[in-house]
Write a structure and sequence with these properties.
Length: 222
């Protein structure tokens, strides 16, 4: 394998605990319950879809103004929580992959922050390249649609068999599989391993250390 397509939130950056806390706090203010498990399970949906699903289920009518207010407040609360750290073991894995210059290390995210590359460079110096990035600006459809990972694969110039998607969430796993790519699920949060299996992951690992070991073993065997 030579193309490694990493999801960002929850896979590279340990941002999910703060996202979940921010959601819970702001939704409570608007009279809605928000269980952290829900946040992890729906991770990858746009914020507006997330609000809509929860509001519908709880019988709350959300106007466009309210939708915007919730989104704005959630973003503000999240930002106040400070910069998130990297997911445990992922720096080690990235450095291992970067040792082989024929490897392409991509980030494929639904996020659309303009300073995304700078954020990645700060956490993982010298690993990512601005041309190996698919963000919200590159696609029409977000995960679980195949488009984000299809774009990465097309731009990589590699065969599908040479590519591996690394994801932490069911939506992202569905996206990788829909693109016809080998997809690994790494459970970095509070979901069960079965949630990742059910989404269709080809392999599921409990952490990044296990994934690195598996990649090393595969290399030794080949
Ligand atoms: Ca994710």
């Amino acid at each position: 394998m030579r193309g490694y397509f990493f999801d960002m939130d929850g896979t590279l950056i340990d941002s999910m605990p703060n996202h979940a806390k921010a959601w819970k706090q702001v939704m409570a203010k608007y009279g809605m319950c928000f269980a952290p498990y829900e946040c992890y399970l729906n991770e990858g949906r746009t914020s507006r879809d997330m609000i809509r699903i929860l509001a519908d289920r709880q019988g709350v009518t959300v106007s466009d103004e309210m939708m915007e207010a919730i989104y704005r407040e959630k973003t503000a609360v999240y930002r106040q929580m400070g910069d998130p750290i990297s997911v445990s073991g992922v720096s080690d894995l990235l450095q291992y992959l970067a040792k082989d210059p024929s490897n392409q290390i991509w980030v494929v995210t639904g996020g659309g922050q303009v300073d995304l590359w700078e954020q990645l460079e700060q956490l993982f110096p010298g690993i990512f390249h601005p041309e190996y990035m698919i963000t919200a600006f590159d696609v029409v459809h977000g995960k679980p649609h195949a488009e984000p990972y299809l774009r990465a694969w097309e731009r990589s110039g590699l065969n599908k068999e040479e590519c591996c998607v690394i994801e932490n969430a069911p939506m992202g796993i569905r996206s990788g599989k829909a693109a016809g790519l080998f997809t690994v699920g790494v459970n970095t949060g509070i979901l069960s391993l079965n949630d990742l299996h059910e989404a269709g992951a080809d392999k599921v690992f409990s952490n990044m250390h296990e994934l690195r070991q598996w990649l090393e073993d595969m290399k030794t065997e080949s």
